[in-house]
Automatic annotation (TrEMBL):
Pfam families: GHMP_kinases_C (PF08544), GHMP_kinases_N (PF00288). Residues 71-146 form the GHMP kinase N-terminal domain. The keyword Kinase applies. Belongs to the GHMP kinase family. IspE subfamily. Catalyzes the phosphorylation of the position 2 hydroxy group of 4-diphosphocytidyl-2C-methyl-D-erythritol. This is 4-diphosphocytidyl-2-C-methyl-D-erythritol kinase. GO terms for biological process: isopentenyl diphosphate biosynthetic process, methylerythritol 4-phosphate pathway; terpenoid biosynthetic process. Pathway: Isoprenoid biosynthesis; isopentenyl diphosphate biosynthesis via DXP pathway; isopentenyl diphosphate from 1-deoxy-D-xylulose 5-phosphate: step 3/6. Keywords: ATP-binding, Isoprene biosynthesis, Kinase, Nucleotide-binding, Transferase. It is an enzyme of class 2 (transferase). Residues 209-260 form the GHMP kinase C-terminal domain. ATP binds at residues 99-109. The gene is ispE.
Amino acid sequence: MVHFPNCKINLGLNIIRKRNDGFHDLETVFYPVHLRDALETLPQPGEKNTTSPAIHFTASGLPVAGSVDSNLCVKAYHLLLKDYPAIGSVRMHLHKTIPMGAGLGGGSADGAFALKALDQLFHLNLTEQQLIAYALQLGSDCPFFIINKPCFATGRGEVMQPVTVDLKGYTLVIINPGIHVNTGQAFSLITPQQPPVSALDIIQQPVNTWRNALTNDFEAPVMQLYPEIAHIKNRLYEAGAVYASMTGTGSTLFALFQTQVPDLSIPSSYFFTELQLS
């Protein structure tokens, strides 16, 4: 079977407090975007009844960082195997089109979709809440991709409330300059605080009011470290974007346009795409 893990953008991202477990409480609105990887999952021929089931994982497309064992798709398999030892061996192939480490949640989506694929392949009949619980063990962003609808998220990102966000008719531009932002360093530069207005309230207002209200706490410190990211954001507004922001901890920026997107003169080394929202 083939699944198509999609990415997400963050509409606002506020770090509220540091928790005793070392994680942070946050608030954000996750918005799914149809820029997608492809994940094929098949039973391993001839190994249906093996006493030592295993996963054979391969990848193509954009480079996948890290070892095979650290890949969230592989981790998803072993996570389920621990509780469901009767599942068999599988072949899994991932074709990457979502940039890695870009704040788009591509790796998290792959892990979450691997859980859903394995659930279907082996008829585990897991509930949505069970899948969310497994996904949280893979990473803080993973539970969102089980629901995969616009959600206001709190806690580590796993406490989710579906919301309505009307972006129909907008063109979404996504730009990634290929700058690696260290997540740990980004968090170290943040002073957690309660935002004056919740992102949940702001996204209910017209998009043209978001510019000075809907903020990502990581923008200021990350753009201070990497001025090129700030330059891209300014260029997007100069080109007529209604709203532009960094997503996640960066370095990807996105922008919403109501009119035709002009030539942004994006360097060929950058990742760039336009998507019509419906």
